[in-house]
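Reviewers of the previous submission asked for a worked example of the structure-prediction workflow described in the proposal, so we include one complete record here. The input consisted solely of the amino acid sequence. No template or homolog information was supplied to the procedure at any stage.
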Amino acid sequence: MAQGEKRSVQIDLLIDRADKTINLCEMKFYAKPYQLTAKDEKDIEDKILTFREITKTDKNIIITMITSKGIGHNEHSDVIQKELVLEDLFC
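From that input alone, the workflow returned the following structure tokens.
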């Protein structure tokens, strides 16, 4: 990134909790379990760094994936700390 250039990221949902924890949520809608890629993993890590840099927060950040059918667990899915499916939200 060039000097003076501002970094930006898109965050789908933030839940700022009273226990000094923030759920940084990614949302994906797919007909089958979502398979994270190396690019997804890097993008999520960039979001955390950018969010911390801009907000100066010292709160714990939990990466939460909200999907229609869950995630397929692979070498990139360890970046996800909490997983929710749509049924969890509407039961």
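The chain has a mean pLDDT of 92. We consider this example representative of the routine output the project will generate in years two and three.
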